[in-house]
Design goal:
With 69 residues, the protein is mainly alpha-helical. Helices cover 49% and strands 6% of the residues. The protein has a two-stranded antiparallel sheet. The two termini are 18 Å apart.
């Protein structure tokens, strides 16, 4: 599964290009969930479509609005 370009661009417009990525090496670091193997039998979850690193509450709110669209 991949993220649509328009959705990625909407998130990039909110946080800037330096705070969002689709680089596989970064996405893989967000797959590991501590103690996940206790709950579901595996240390890893599905790879995220992107990693977004907001700097403010306002950016988090804008990200949530964009995701709900």
């Amino acid at each position: 599964m991949t993220m649509e370009a328009a959705a990625y661009q909407a998130l990039e417009d909110i946080v800037g290009p330096e705070h969002i990525t689709r680089e596989p090496v970064v996405l893989d670091t967000y797959c590991y969930i501590w103690a996940n193997e206790v709950l579901v039998g595996d240390k890893f979850s599905a790879r995220p479509l992107a990693v977004v690193m907001p700097e403010s509450t306002e950016q988090v709110q804008a990200i949530m609005r964009a995701c709900n669209r």
